[in-house]
Amino acid sequence: MRIISGNRKGKALKSVPGTGTRPTTDKVKEAIFNMVGPYFQGGLGLDLFAGSGGLGIEALSRGLDKVIFVDKDAKAIATIKSNLDQCDLSDKSEVYRNESFRALKAIVKRELQFDLILLDPPYQKQKLVDILELIDDQQLLNENGFVMCEHSSDVSLPNEVGSLKLLKKETYGMIRISIFHAL
Question: Positions of the region Disordered (predicted)?
Fold first, then answer.
């Protein structure tokens, strides 16, 4: 795994030890950022099921000012911190070990809004529509922001979730990427 583009291009990233986390392939990562960017002029990101932190770190490399990384697995948190240190991006990040809905409730209390929200939950435990509804209800997405959902290709998300509208969807083998933005 590596950073594909931006000011940290080519930096190697560690994967989370074990088989519980599947890293996003370079091909899919490149496709995601071509759909939402590919580069940013600052802004705030949220990598909610961060795993190794690869997607959020890619977003930082491509110009986001700061990314909040959340994962409930201790090995994932250690990997994220290691990858951020290795890329000299620790000062542009916050890393939290927490369950997704609890993390979102804590974010609501901070009154934050994001330019990019990355959702790549474990395929067997997805609650993407519930998470999208919470993001919409609590207005966590900036006016020109995007929510990226990585999910199994046999899962179809609705075209609209509240004021979030499906902008694009692409399938890469067993993986589907769905991009939402605010109406």
Answer: 1-23
- Domain tally for the chain? 1
Contact (CB, 8 A) for 90 and 69 = no
Q: Is residue 10 part of a domain?
A: no
3-state secondary structure 38-96: CCCCCCEEEECCCCCCHHHHHHHHCCCCEEEEEECCHHHHHHHHHHHHHCCCHHHEEEE
In a domain, 20, yes or no: no
CATH number where 81 lies = 3.40.50.150
Q: For the chain, how many helices (H) and strands (E)?
A: 5, 8
CA distances from 66 to 35, 51, 77, 161 (A): 20, 17, 17, 26
Confidence of residue 49 (pLDDT cuts 50, 70, 90): very high
Q: For residue range 90-127, list pLDDT tens digits in order.
A: 999 999 999 999 999 999 999 999 999 999 988 665 78
